[in-house]
Amino acid sequence: MKSANELHAANGSHETWIPLLEMATREVFELMLSCQLTVPATAEETIPEVTAMVGLAGQLCGVLSVRCTRKAAALMVSKMLGVELDKAGPEVSDALGEVCNMVAGNFKNKIAGLAEGCMLSPPTVITGSDYNLHSHADSPALEVRLLFESMPILISLLIQS
Amino acid sequence: MSIRALIVDDSSVMRKIVERSLRQAGIDLSKVFEAGNGAEALAVLAENQVDLILCDINMPVMDGLEFIKRLPGVANAKDVPVVMITTEGSESHVVQALSCGARGYIRKPFTPEQVKEHVVPLLGGKS
């Protein structure tokens, strides 16, 4: 019987990785921001204002993204650096990129074979919401929706098999 | 006794987090040098003596492994402990880093306690 953290899920999809993606995200926020993420009561749509993306290449190819509002990203900076919220502005892109990078790294380290066989790109950060992301992913994105200090964050993994 | 640290990471936020973690770990820092990649770090070491180096692996221009391979030829880095702090968590990266001369390896995400655990024993009472 295959476990959830083997490289390919038994049914050919990667839905069994969703709990690992959530765990990887929660750990980053707990360790680096001293913050517990919570599960939203409803899956309401939010308009992301900042998007950080990290590419994966090798045994797993795809894009992992973290999306949130600018206010949430600024609060991440504030918590990561221990600075006042109004002094967090210049670091927002860098900080969200690092959060995305750590989520991607932590996620791949949880899956047998991926820590060695999958490389991460440097993070890319988009500010603004009027864009479309086109990838070569050939399966639906794995998505995790969580609340950071009552503000939604969306973690998404697009996989190209 | 206070120490001079060199923090090498392409993220300025991460450099600040590492510095903050060192201070939270109770390490007395008299001076913190920052570099965005291995080449910048070598330039810092050409002019400055340090007591501790904390270094990321994945960086542009010159990555962390290439940087620590070059340290034996740098006078100001002689016998200076190097600790890698990186998202790369594979055993092969750890083995490679240690074989290149790193004395410690911390995976991101990390806590100040982990920094203390890995760094303080390397300072020989300097902290």
Which ranges of chain A are low-confidence, i.e. pLDDT below 50, for 5 or more consecutive residues? 1-5
Record field, number of beta strands of chain A:
6
Number of domains of chain A: 1
Largest sheet of chain A: 6 strands, antiparallel
The total count of helices of chain A amounts to 4
Output the CATH homologous superfamily of chain A.
CheC-like
Estimate the helix proportion of chain A, in percent.
25-40%
CATH architecture annotation name of chain A: 3-Layer(aba) Sandwich
Q: At the third CATH level, what is the topology name of chain A?
A: Chemotaxis protein chec
Distance from N terminus to C terminus of chain B (CA atoms, Å) equals 6 Å
Oligomer: heterodimer
> Which value, in Å, is the CA radius of gyration of chain A?
15 Å
What's this entry about, in short?
Chain A has 161 residues and is an alpha+beta fold.
Please supply descriptive tags for the structure shown above.
heterodimer, A: 161 residues, alpha+beta, Chemotaxis protein chec, 6-stranded antiparallel sheet, 30% helix, globular, B: 127 residues, alpha/beta, Rossmann fold, 5-stranded parallel sheet, 5 helices, 37% helix, 20% strand
Can you describe this structure?
Chain A has four helices and six strands. Chain A is globular and about 40 Å long. By secondary structure, chain A is α+β, with helices and mostly antiparallel strands. Chain B is built from five helices and five strands; from the N terminus they run βαβαβαβαβα. Chains A and B meet through helix 1, helix 2 and helix 3 of A and helix 1 of B.
